[in-house]
Amino acid sequence: MRRLSVLVFALVLPIAVVAAGQELRLPDAEGSVKFAVIGDTGEPSAGQIAIAKQMAAWRAKFPFKFVLMMGDNLYGSESPGDYQKKFSGPYKALLDGGVEFHAALGNHDDAAQTQFKPFNMNGQKYYTFKPQDGVRFFALDSNYVDQKQIAWLEKELSASGSGWKIPFFHHPLYSSGKTHGSAELQRSLLEPVFLKYGVNVVFSGHEHFYERIKPQKGVAYFIIGSSSKLRRGDLNKSELTVYGNDQTYAFMLVEIVNDELFFQTINDKGETIDAGSIRRAGDRPVAPTNTTTQPVVPQSKPSPVQPGPERK
User: pTM of the entire structure?
Assistant: First the structure.
């Protein structure tokens, strides 16, 4: 009998809790995988500087070791001075502290970024890395999803041996954005591979807001594209949306502890705007062929975390 991986989601709806807005809502467990997520960061702005400062400040509470970048890492020109102005300068405190950045390419990025050592792409438009046993990340190039990349992804996913398989890339497969919306072409190419090989969580950018999508076919999707650019009023909340915010710049803190992934989304003022957890429930028998390969089941004991207020 074939087996499949199942995720259990603790999805907590936002409520107005201000007092705890700046408290760490992650376990900060010893030996866990701790990281941050930012997107569409390549435009110098007050928002970018504020987010970079908040990331450094929160790292004192939560010592994340690396950062995922969702693409559009450099808007406009890409001279050596631009790398300094748009990346190395704003994130100097994190870089000096030994934090690694792992970038994906966005539609505004030149392929030459793959050669920029601090992006840890090692000359590749798509790549994979494993911070520790049981967890593997897959940076994809969603600008050009050709058969070569799909074949590579299938090979890497099938051989990963990790319970947590987490792709990250620029264009969101599901989105409630007015400007862009769901990347349906990329979805048609990537989603079957994700389902076949048990992908758990996907991070994307492109939309200049934050959105947590309702689990789609057993996969959790997050959009975080408001770390230096913000498009207020562009989130057209839909049946896809569990929570979204297009009023503040944001970044994410994420922690994986065994079979549970905890997340906390923080704005440029240091306030928590969303928080929750996702649980992998282990293997279950395959359901009929017309159902998803990763069904979502209720979590019996939701994590004791609550989102903060949505700013209007």
Answer: 0.88
In order along its 312 residues, the chain shows pLDDT tens digits of 444 455 555 544 443 334 456 899 999 999 999 999 999 998 999 999 999 999 999 999 999 999 999 999 999 888 999 999 999 999 999 999 999 999 999 988 899 999 999 999 999 999 999 999 999 999 999 999 999 999 999 999 999 989 899 999 999 999 998 889 899 999 999 999 998 888 889 999 989 999 999 889 888 999 999 999 998 898 989 989 899 999 999 999 999 999 899 999 999 999 999 999 888 866 555 543 433 444 443 343 334 334 433 433
159, 131 in Cβ contact below 8 A? no
Strands (E) in 122-168, as ranges, are 127-132, 135-139, 164-168
Per-position b or e across 7-40, b if 16+ CB within 10 A of its CB: bbbbbbebeeeeeebbebbbbeeeebbbbbbbbb
Residues 6+ positions from 172 with CB-CB distance below 8 Å: 180, 182, 183, 204, 205, 206, 207, 211, 213, 221, 223
Q: What is the rounded CA–CA span in Å between residue 253 and residue 264?
A: 5
User: What residue spans define the domains of the chain?
Assistant: 3-298
Q: Judge residue 290's burial from the number of C-beta atoms within 10 Å of its C-beta, 0-12 exposed, 13-18 middle, 19 or more buried.
A: exposed
Spatial distance between the Cα atoms of 173 and 296, rounded to a whole number of angstroms = 18
CB 109 within 8 A of CB 73: yes
- CATH 3.60.21.10 at 3-298, yes or no: yes
